[in-house]
Amino acid sequence: MYGLGFTDQDIVDVMRTVTPSSSRRLNPLQPFIPDTESARLTTKTVSNSLDMFILGPALVYAGLGKSLPKPMKGLLLMTGIGTVMVALGNALEKQS
Asked: Any idea where the domains of the chain sit in the sequence?
């Protein structure tokens, strides 16, 4: 008998109930560890949103600067528009 009134058989019964039947071991921290698939999707969504709403428009705005050489303007504009288009395509692909 243990300090809380449990017998050895009580402990064995609990272990049989809690122990998974497959070869995977029970991780007591599992409720606190995010699912890797959902964490990956969340990270991808945040990254995609930052690309679409911050990075792309910032590149386009920088490409509109008056004191830049024409090749630099063109490169910044094309990169900004391309960034927004790729991020938008990824977002639409995720929805479907």
From this structure: 8-95
Neighbours of 51 (CB within 10 A): 19
Which sign, positive or negative, has the C-alpha torsion 66, 82, 85, 80?
negative
Structure tokens at 2: 């243990």
Enumerate the H helices of the chain as residue ranges: 8-18, 36-50, 56-63, 70-95
Q: What are the C-alpha distances in Å from 37 to residues 16, 30, 68?
A: 29, 14, 43
pLDDT at 79: 96
Task: Give 65-89 pLDDT, tens digit per residue.
Answer: 889 999 999 999 999 999 999 999 9
Contact criterion met (CB below 8 Å) for 54 and 80: no
Quote the CA–CA distance of 40 and 35 in Å, as a whole number.
9
